[in-house]
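pasting for ref
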Amino acid sequence: MIANKTMSRAMLCALLGLALVGCAPTRTQQAPGEVIDDSVITARVNSALVADPTTKARQIDVQTRRGTVQLNGFVDSSASKARAAELAGRVRGVRSVDNNLLVRDTKTTVGETIDDSVLTGKVKAALIGDPVTKARQISVETLRGVVQLSGFVDSAAERDQATKVAQAVTGVREVRNDLAIKQGP
């Protein structure tokens, strides 16, 4: 009877140990607490951008992974680009800032904006249809036929494939690949 209880306890401990190992994050996966921390950092960076009178927060896409903040999109000036990076860097919890913001050289017309929106949709659809790329991890922005890919992906192969997929879309003049490869802890 005592041997059965001891054996049962040992098996229970082994199962719990396996369960805990199964919940541990992998090199490309984040632990639940990290995801929450990154969401909080993203919200704080967005709030700082909105509160600042010199930056246009609606032009800037913010993504965070393990304290690394990516600033993506197209802004009106070099000053806006620099200010956004400065504000992001001041946020508590930010380890580093990848400033992928591109400066628009001139104002766009309504027709160009519509064309860029259509092109963005086509690139997103192509990424969804590709078996290698995980489209939910990739943000797509377009300005005058220049497509910016940003976010965090699992591998160099996925990063390279995203570029190939975007370049294959009719109307894409250039692809700026700012995708970062997820790193371990």
